[in-house]
């Protein structure tokens, strides 16, 4: 009896903790190692533990991979080679402006393999604002805490007269200067992976709190004592100390893309603060940002997954601007190499992030997004084109001109403080021109504008994907043109082009299919073939990329019943694939294959909105079922916690929105499509001071289905929510049940927006 009593108390206490989880310190729920158990052949996120402030200019990370390896930190690694300042948005895009600091003891070494040390995750603490690890071979504990453009590193040494700190400015051209009387090292690195002007440099300054006993520099091969300055392909420095047991050596570090003087200015972000003070400030910033979304009533695992995903949505695009001595916003242009006034952001692939990341900013961080929009206008001024994949300048990666979605969504949802007319002119230029790279402007634009599609047989790869995305982008431009009161002919031109998706619909297979220049469909057609006419997916994935006109797509498929059956088929057909376009099984294919959800490929972005489309067919309970399946099976707060590339916050933003209970299927409209909430209660604190409260008190693992919805106390039958009404402050009450309500949301009047409805 007593045992049962204590079990009952434990159960009550556990549920109280679960329902009333203290979100005063949500940063404690973040696992920055989520997604790090990745490799080129299979991604569980392709992430690294970024030690950073939200959208900070500089990140830091422990480096386990070799210099230049995009997989710079992997969970299964045994050794750490150094602590790297990084700007890497993706292992496929790789890094730029990076340099490394590494403490060692014993024999003086400098090469990355020689200085590497064994470590264990059992002696590692990884948080957004703080990282600590014990380097076993050197008996040194290393810690890092960041500001936006600076950081403090703290090394706890053993008793030794052979304590060292190695600074590696990396190869491709670098410079180091030791200034012993100031306990300072300055240098620059030029290492990059493309997308930079010829004068690109990242200037750094490192200030120590302990005098140097001896100093050395090196040029990649040779270590030279008492040479204080060196410039070569690959340079570095080693400074020596004698330390007592437990002695802490601190290094304050900052960098700038502008100059050494600006790096010194950026170091003032640390100022006189010690390590613990910087750490406390960084923790407060993260807690304040994460607490904008307060979740209650989920399991510990769900809460950890939510905040780990939320952290990822707050990293990219990074701030690529700096504040000069007068506090003026300036930036080094990665497009023309000049130092100019105004905002600049980078490290983002819009093909991924237009879907949910930027709509998330427009809901929760609109003033940040306004700065990003100003940065886009500056990019247009400095390069002649809008960025589609920037890191730090234009990179030749992915398809589409999805800057249209990002710009239109920002303005149409009330964004202010940026030059929308200049951005609109940039979109007009995009709509008529190819760019200097295939990812900039619109590759195949003359075919698209003349024929209504990019042909399969004119040697333009991924042509069907381009056509579908251009059509959606044209819808965005037409909506923006209306808001800007542009000429009717202009509005009509883009509205007409938004229907170009119909040109690729094959009525026989009821799927999208490449089409030749003469108007015939390409043959043979294998809907399971990845790539070729599509981008990192097959026809089963890309057919749904008609974000703006799901009703029109449904009509092509024979109406709601036929449309719903095709949606069902994605999960029913086996995970078969044709990889002949690539010649090997790319990781996105393997990730789909092993998830046991048919041909649904959540690990890649084109299909991530598809589950929400049952709302357009009068079967919203199927959306509710599959959302929970994906959230439960494909997201965990663990090193293998994602099901594919995380990609600049997009796969995370899907989870964040889906946990709230709605999702932006069609950016550049006012609507979010309903899903099913995950938590018993969520409170969103908006920038305008209003709050959105989402209540679902019966929510649990079984009660995944929505029985009814009330919006501000009134019954809500729609399968969507209005952005405008949400931002005025709202209370949404969900009544949840273990059985679907097949009477709610079944009438066409309740379906979300479609252009042709």
UniProtKB/TrEMBL annotation:
GO terms for molecular function: carbohydrate binding; peptide-N4-(N-acetyl-beta-glucosaminyl)asparagine amidase activity. It comes from the Bacteria. It comes from Arcicella rosea. Keywords: Calcium. InterPro entries: 6-hairpin_glycosidase_sf, GH-type_carb-bd, GH92_a_mannosidase_put, GH92_N, Glyco_hydro_92, PNGase. One of its GO terms (cellular component) is cytosol. Its cofactor is Ca(2+). This is Putative alpha-1,2-mannosidase. Residues 262-737 form the Glycosyl hydrolase family domain. Residues 29-256 form the Glycosyl hydrolase family 92 N-terminal domain. Monomer. Pfam families: Glyco_hydro_92, Glyco_hydro_92N. GO terms for biological process: carbohydrate metabolic process; glycoprotein catabolic process.
């Amino acid at each position: 009896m007593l045992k049962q009593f204590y079990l009952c108390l434990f159960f009550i206490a556990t549920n109280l903790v679960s329902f009333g989880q203290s979100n005063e310190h949500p940063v404690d729920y973040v696992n920055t190692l989520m997604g790090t158990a990745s490799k080129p052949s299979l991604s569980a996120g392709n992430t690294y533990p970024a030690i950073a402030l939200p959208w900070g200019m500089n990140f830091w990370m422990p480096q386990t991979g070799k210099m230049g390896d995009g997989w710079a930190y992997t969970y299964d690694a045994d050794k750490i080679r150094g602590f790297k300042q990084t700007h890497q948005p993706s292992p496929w895009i790789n890094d730029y402006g990076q340099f490394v600091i590494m403490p060692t003891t014993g024999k003086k070494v400098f090469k990355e393999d020689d200085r590497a040390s064994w470590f264990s995750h059992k002696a590692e603490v990884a948080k957004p604002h703080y990282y600590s690890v014990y380097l076993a071979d050197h008996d040194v504990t290393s810690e890092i805490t960041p500001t936006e453009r600076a950081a403090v590193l703290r090394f706890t040494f053993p008793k030794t007269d052979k304590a060292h700190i190695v600074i590696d400015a990396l190869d491709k051209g670098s410079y180091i200067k030791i200034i012993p009387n100031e306990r300072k090292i300055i240098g620059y690195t030029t290492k990059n992976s493309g997308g930079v002007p010829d004068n690109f440099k990242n200037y750094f300054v490192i200030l120590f709190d302990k005098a140097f006993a001896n100093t050395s520099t090196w040029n990649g091969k040779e270590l030279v004592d008492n040479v204080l300055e060196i410039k070569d392909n690959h340079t570095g420095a080693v400074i020596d100390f004698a330390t007592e047991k437990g002695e802490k050596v601190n290094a304050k570090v900052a960098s700038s893309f502008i100059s050494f003087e600006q790096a010194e200015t950026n170091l003032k972000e640390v100022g006189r603060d010690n390590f613990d003070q910087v750490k406390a400030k960084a923790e407060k910033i993260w807690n304040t940002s994460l607490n904008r979304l307060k979740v209650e009533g989920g399991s510990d695992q769900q809460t950890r997954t939510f905040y780990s995903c939320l952290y990822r949505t707050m990293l990219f695009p990074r701030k690529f601007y700096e504040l000069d001595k007068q506090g003026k916003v300036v930036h080094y242009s990665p497009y023309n190499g000049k130092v100019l006034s105004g905002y600049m952001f980078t490290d983002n692939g819009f093909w991924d992030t237009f879907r949910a990341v930027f709509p998330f900013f427009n809901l929760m961080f609109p003033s940040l997004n306004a700065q990003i929009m100003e940065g886009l206008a500056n990019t247009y001024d400095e390069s002649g084109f809008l960025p589609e994949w920037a890191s730090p300048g234009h990179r030749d990666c992915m398809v589409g001109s999805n800057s249209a979605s990002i710009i239109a969504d920002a303005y149409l949802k009330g964004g202010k403080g940026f030059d929308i007319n200049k951005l609109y002119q940039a979109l007009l230029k995009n709509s008529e021109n190819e760019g200097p790279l295939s990812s900039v402007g619109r590759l195949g634009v003359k075919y698209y504008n003349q024929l209504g599609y990019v042909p399969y047989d004119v040697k333009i790869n991924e042509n069907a994907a381009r056509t579908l995305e251009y059509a959606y982008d044209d819808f965005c431009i037409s909506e923006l043109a209306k808001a800007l009161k542009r000429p009717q002919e202009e509005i009509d031109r883009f509205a007409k082009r938004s229907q170009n998706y119909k040109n690729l619909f094959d009525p026989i297979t009821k799927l999208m299919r490449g089409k030749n220049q003469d108007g015939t469909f390409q043959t043979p057609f294998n809907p399971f073939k990845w790539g070729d006419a599509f981008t990192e997916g097959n026809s089963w994935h890309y057919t749904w990329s008609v974000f703006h006109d799901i009703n029109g797509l449904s009509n092509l498929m024979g109406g709601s019943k036929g449309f719903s059956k095709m949606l069902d088929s994605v999960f029913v057909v086996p995970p078969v694939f044709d990889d002949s376009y690539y010649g090997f099984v790319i990781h996105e294919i393997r990730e789909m294959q092993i998830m046991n959800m048919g041909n649904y490929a959540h690990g890649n972005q084109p299909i991530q909105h598809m589950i929400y489309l049952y709302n357009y067919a009068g079967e919203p309970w199927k959306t509710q079922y599959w959302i929970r399946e994906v959230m439960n099976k494909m997201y965990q707060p663990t090193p293998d916690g994602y099901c594919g590339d995380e990609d600049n916050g997009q796969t995370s933003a899907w989870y964040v929105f889906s946990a709230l209970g709605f999702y932006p299927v069609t950016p550049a409209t006012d609507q979010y499509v309903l899903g099913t909430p995950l938590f018993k209660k969520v409170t969103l604190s908006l920038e305008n001071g209003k709050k959105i409260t989402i209540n679902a008190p019966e929510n649990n693992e079984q009660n995944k289905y929505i029985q009814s919805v009330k919006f501000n106390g009134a019954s809500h039958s729609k399968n969507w929510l209005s952005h405008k009404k949400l931002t005025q402050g709202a209370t949404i009450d969900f009544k949840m049940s273990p059985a679907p309500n097949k009477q709610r949301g079944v009438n066409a009047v309740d379906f979300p927006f479609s252009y042709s409805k």
